[in-house]
């Protein structure tokens, strides 16, 4: 019992020099970033994974004699091709400050930038089918 749940995701190590440079950048650009009339756009790319290995589900055990009354669906684990190389997609987005008087919601550009590739065999010894059942 007890204990604490912690995340295993790595966080960047910020040295004192990094922190000073970040604060100096914010001080020089604060007026520009907080002024809603200044033309500033933010560009970022993001990987989206189709599955999450961190998500957990609680599957309840079946009780004898109640299968017909409750009609509880069984949990089917999703099939994936590789745990080391999960299916992912990258999007590129550009946003700016929204302006209500011009009916502008802030979105400038959003596009999928990753390419679809057909799955090829990793080696001549690996003969997997393309379709996972």
List keywords for this structure.
133 residues, elongated, alpha+beta
Would you give an account of this structure?
With 133 residues, this protein is an alpha+beta fold. 17% of the residues lie in helices and 18% in strands. It is built from 2 helices and 3 strands; from the N terminus they run αβαββ. A 3-stranded antiparallel sheet has the order 1-2-3, with no helix packed on it. It starts with 15 loop residues before the first helix and ends in a 21-residue tail after the last strand.
Write the layout of secondary structure elements.
Layout: H1 16-34, E1 41-49, H2 67-70, E2 88-96, E3 107-112
Antiparallel strand pairs: 1-2, 2-3
Structural class by secondary-structure content: alpha+beta
Q: Give start-end ranges of low-pLDDT stretches.
A: none
Evaluate the radius of gyration: 24 Å
Describe the main β-sheet briefly: 3 strands, antiparallel
The percentage of residues in β strands lies in 15-25%
Q: H/E series, N to C? A: HEHEE
- Proportion of residues in helical segments: 10-25%
* Chain-averaged pLDDT: 76
Terminal-residue CA separation: 40 Å
Shape: elongated
Annotation, overall tally of beta strands? 3
Strand order of the largest sheet: 1-2-3
**Helix count, per DSSP?**
2
In brief:
The chain is built from 2 helices and 3 strands.
């Amino acid at each position: 019992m007890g204990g604490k749940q912690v995340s295993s995701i790595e966080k960047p190590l910020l040295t004192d020099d990094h922190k000073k440079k970040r604060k100096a950048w914010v001080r020089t650009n604060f007026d520009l970033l907080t002024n809603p009339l200044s033309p500033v756009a933010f560009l970022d790319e993001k990987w989206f994974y189709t599955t999450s290995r961190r998500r957990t589900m609680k599957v309840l055990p079946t009780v004898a004699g109640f299968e017909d009354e409750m009609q509880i669906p069984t949990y089917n684990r999703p099939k994936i091709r590789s745990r080391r190389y999960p299916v992912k997609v990258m999007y590129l987005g550009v946003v700016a400050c929204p302006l209500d008087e011009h009916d502008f919601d802030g979105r400038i550009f959003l596009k999928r930038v990753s390419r679809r590739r057909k799955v090829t065999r990793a080696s001549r010894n690996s003969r997997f089918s393309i379709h996972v059942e």
